[in-house]
Amino acid sequence: MASEQQNLITQKHWKMVLDAIPEINHDGAQEDFQLLFRHSRLNAGDILPAKGLYVVIAGAVSLKLNNEELMKAGPLDYFYEEYLLLDELNVEVSATALANTEVAFLSKENWDTLEAKKRERCLSVFFGDLINIHKHEFQQPINSCNITAAALSLTGLGFATEVDDIFKSCALPVSYVVNEGMTIGELYDVASSHIFAEGLRDEVGVELYYFDRDVINNEDLFKAITESNQIGGRNDILVANFAVGLAHGNHKLKGGHFALIAKCNKKTKLVHMMDVHPEKYGKIWITSIDRLYNAMTDHDTNAHRARGLIRFIRKSAVENRLDALAKSDCFPVNCTQYMDLTPEKRRHIFGRASLNMNSLYVLSMGLSFLDKHAIDVDEILAAANISYTKALSIETTAKQLAEIANEYLTHQEFSEVDCSYLNFEAGEEKTKDVWFKEQLLKIANNPNAHLLVNIDYNDVLGHTAIGEISNTYRETAPLTEFWVACIDYSYETDVVILADMSVASSQIWRAPRSKVFRGIKEAETVGLVLLEKANPDENPLEFNNIITQNKLVLFYNDDDPWSYMLKSVMSNIGITEIHLVDVSGLDMYSLNLKKKLAIHSGKERTPYLYFKGQCLGEVDDIVTMVKNGNLQTL
After folding, report:
1. What residues contact residue 276 under an 8 Å CB cut-off, 6+ apart?
2. Which of 231, 267, 222 lies closest to 17 in space, CA to CA?
3. How confident is residue 32, by pLDDT bands cut at 50, 70 and 90?
4. Are 309 and 240 in contact (CB under 8 A)?
5. Residues 6+ apart with CB under 8 A from 535
6. Domains (ranges, CATH) in the chain?
C-alpha cells in the first residue's frame, strides 16, 4: 500500500470488524484481536499487498483476476484471509483500492502471535477445508483429474489414498480413465466402488448432485458450500466438476476438470479451489461463485448433461444430504448396494453404452446381474444374429428386446436367466398405472428378477436434464431411447431403484414410481421385459441344471419310436433312478429346450440320454452299451 497510513483501530471501526466477522467475538479473545488490527486510509489505485486479512471499512476494493473484475468488496466485506494460513500462494487475484477507501488490516505476523485456542473459532470461517487439504501434494497423471480428486478428498478426510490405490482396488481399465476422462456420474460409481473394496463403506459416504439449471441456481451453490462448512466442517469434502474455461474466465482453456472446493468467502462469495493439476493451474486458485456455477452447469460433451458436485463425508459425523442441493426425489444411489463387484462382473460399472446401442447394453447389464457370468453386447448380437446396421439405427421396442434376449438365451448352454415380454392388455379393468405397480411387485425385494423399460429420462425427472443431440442426417442420427433396469421396488415408499448404462447418470439411481410411469415411452402398451433368475426345478430352458442335478436323464418324445424303445430298454434292465423329460410339445417352453439340446449334444433328434452331464451318443451307441453290460454298471 504505497500511500497508506496505518493506525491503531478505533472503537467505531472495531465494531464494524466485529459485524463483518462475529466469530472473533468469543471467549475473551476480542481484546487480543483488536490490538492486532490496523486501520489504513487508501488512495484510489493503491494496490493492497497479499500479506494478511483486509476488512473494508469505507469505500470499495476492486478484486480482479487476469485484469477482469471478479467483484467489488464494499463495507463489511473481507478478503485475502487465506494469507493468514498459507505462505507464497500462487493466486493471481489483485486488490485495488477505489476512491475514499478505508480498511482494517490483520497481518499474518500478528495473526501468528495469537494463542492457538483463540484462533480456533475463526479457522472454519476463514479457511474452510483448506485446513484439511492444503498440506497434501497431489499432481494428477494425464487425464486423471477425476480419480486424483477422489484420492485427495479421501486423504483430506483422514483415509490416506493414492491414485494407484483406486486403479487397483477397482481393477480400473486405464483406457476408461485416460482416453476421454470420466463423467461425474462415472466418478461417483468408481469412488463408491473403491470405498467398498477398501472396507470403508460404513465410515465414508459419497453423494452426487447434478447441476441441472432447472433445479439448481447459483445461490444454491453458495448455500451448499456454506452448509458444508458449518455442518460438515472437517468431516466433508466437496469436489466440483466444471468447464475449465468458464471457471477461470479464460476461453482458451478447453474441456472439463475436477477440483476441490476449498473454501468460499461468505462476504465476497469468492471461491478458493484446490487443484489436482497444480503444474498447470496452480495449487490454489480463485473464482467467483457465478463463474463456478456457470462452469458446473455447463453440459459435459459426452453426457450431454450438466456437470455438478460430489461430496465425500465421514458418516459418523455427517448424517444428511446437503439441503441446498437435495431438491429432487430422483437421485443417485451407491452402486455397491446392488451390484456384483466380483472381478468378472465389475466391468459393467466401468463402461457405458455405445452410441445407439443403449437397449442392448442395458439388456447385457440385466443379464449379467442375474447370470453366472458377465455378458457382452457382441455376444448377444452374434448369438441372436442381429444386423449391426439395424441395431445402430432403429429404436428397439420391449417386444423386440424380449425376442432378442430369448434368441440369445436359447443359444447359451449355461444361462440361468428366463425372459418374457409383458404388456398392458386393452380392455383390462385395472388402470395402466395399477398394472405397472403389480409388475413392480414381482421385483420388490427380489434380487432374482428385473424389469427393463424404455423411458424418457427428462420426463421422469420433470425437467430437461439431457440436451438434444442434433444431427442433419436421419440415418446417422443418435437414437433417443433410454432403457433402464428396474432392479428393486419399495412398496412402503413407492420408490423404484433403477440401473442404466448411460453416461448421463450414475449407474444406480432412484425415482418415485409415479415419475417412472409417466416417463415410459411405450405409453399405450406399457411394454416391459422381465428377466428372472430361473429355478432349475421349474425352468426346463435351463437344462444344464437338469443334467447336472440328476445323474441319469432321458429327454424323450412319445411320438418318436426310438424314444419309446429307449424308455423300454431302461425299464427292462432295471434302471429306476432316471429323470424323464418330455420335449414333445410345440410350445416355446419345449422348442427352446430342444434347441439347447441340439446345440449341446450335437444331435438333431430325440432321444437324448445324459449321464453325469454328458450325452451318451446315438441310440445305436446306447444299445451297444446295453449289450456289453456297460450301461447296467453305471
Report:
1. 138, 139, 140, 145, 148, 149, 152, 258, 259, 260
2. 267
3. confident
4. yes
5. none
6. 5-127 (2.60.120.10), 133-327 (3.90.70.30), 351-533 (3.90.70.10), 543-633 (3.40.30.10)
- Identify any residues that bridge with 309 across adjacent strands, giving them in sequence order: 209, 240
Does residue 60 sit in helix, strand or coil?
coil
Paired residues of 40 in beta bridges: 6, 103
Q: Where are the beta strands (DSSP E) in 559-633?
A: 579-582, 608-611, 614-615
What average pLDDT does the chain have? Answer: 85
Nearest to 293 by CA among 232, 209, 239, 220: 220
pTM, to two decimals: 0.80
Contact 243, 307 (CB under 8 A): yes
Q: Read off the pLDDT of each residue in 465-489 and give the average, rounded to a whole number.
A: 74
What is the strand order of the sheet 256-264 is part of?
204-210, 308-314, 236-243, 256-264, 270-275, 284-288
Asked whether residue 456 carries a pLDDT value surpassing 50, the answer given is: yes
3-state DSSP call for residue 474? Answer: helix
Number of other CB atoms surrounding residue 600 within 10 Å: 18
Paired sense of beta strands 579-582 and 552-556, if any: parallel
The distance between the two most distant Cα atoms of the chain, rounded to a whole number of Å, is: 118
The C-alpha atoms of residue 576 and residue 573 are separated, in whole angstroms, by 9
CA distances (Å), origin 575, targets 65, 417, 615, 634: 90, 32, 17, 10
Q: Which residues of 56-65 are buried (b: 16+ CB within 10 A; e: fewer)?
A: bbebbbbbeb
pLDDT tens track for 154-193:
998 989 998 889 888 887 777 666 666 789 999 999 999 9
pLDDT at 209: 98
Please identify which residue in the block is written with the cell numbers 439448481.
216
Amino acid 205: pLDDT: 95
Instruction: Give 516's Cβ-side CA count (13 Å radius).
Output: 31
SS3 301: coil
